[in-house]
Amino acid sequence: MRHIRPYITGGIALVFAAVVFILPFVFILIQAVKSKSEASRLSFSLPQDWLFWQNLVAVFKARDYQLLLAYFNSTLITVASVSILVILSAMVGYIMQRRRTPWNAVAQIALFMGLMMPPAVVPTIGLLQELGLFKTIHGMVLIQVAYNLSFSTLLYRSFISTIPRDLDEAALIDGAKPWQIFFRVILPLLKPVTVTNIVVQSIAIFNDFTNPLYYLPGKENVTVQLTLYNFQSMYTSQYNLLFMNILLVTIPPLIVFIFFNRQIVAGMTAGAVKG
Known about the structure:
Blueprint: H1 5-32, H2 36-39, H3 52-98, H4 103-116, H5 121-131, H6 137-160, H7 165-173, H8 178-186, H9 191-206, H10 210-215, H11 239-259, H12 261-274
Family: Belongs to the binding-protein-dependent transport system permease family.
Subcellular location: Cell inner membrane; Cell membrane
Main location: membrane
C-alpha cells in the first residue's frame, strides 16, 4: 500500500490540476472558434463550423487594429518597467545586505509596507496630475516600478546574502570602486535571481489590468488587457471574439512561463536554501 500511495496522490494532483488549469483554457479555445450565436450559449459543445481564422482576423481588425497598438504599449511598459526594476532593486538589495546602518531598519519597514499596504488610487492620480505624468506611458512605467519594487528588492536581498563577502573585499583590495564591485563582481552572479525576477515581473506587468485602467486612460494608451472591453457592452457581447481576444492575450505570458519555469523555481529557491 505504501508503494501505491504516491501514485494515487500524484494521480489526484494531476486530475485537480487539469480541472483547475487545463479545462478553463480548453473552454476558452472552444468558444474562440465558434460563431457569435453558438458562443453566446457558453456551452462546452464543439462548434458546428470552426471559425478560428475569421475570428482571429476580426479581433485584430477591431477598432482600427487597436490590438496591435495595445501589444506595443504593453510590451513597451513591460520592458521599460522590468529594466528599471532589475537594476534599481538589485542595487537597493545589495546596499541593504552589505551595509549595516540604522537606515536599514527604516528601509526594511518601507519595503514591508510596500508589500502589505494597498495602493491609494485617488491620491496617486492627483500626484500624477501634478507631475504631468497622468495618461502617459512613462508615468505608467513609474507606477509599475513603485508597486513592484518591494518584492524585487527582497528577492535580491535574500539572494545576495548567499554571496560571500570575501569577493567584495578582494575586489576592494584590488582597487575597485564601489560601483565597479557591484556591476563587475556582484551583478554577474545574480543571473539566477535576475531571470526569475524578469519572468515573474514581466508576466505580472503584461497581464496587469487595474493599474492601466486607473492611471492610463485614453484610446491611444490602451493595453492588451483593456482590449477585452472591445467585445462586450451593456446590451450585447460578442463572446466568440471576446474569448479569441482572451486567447491572444493569454498565450504570450503562458509561453514565457512554460519555457522559463525551471529558472523561476531555481531563482526562488536558491536564496531560500542558502540563506
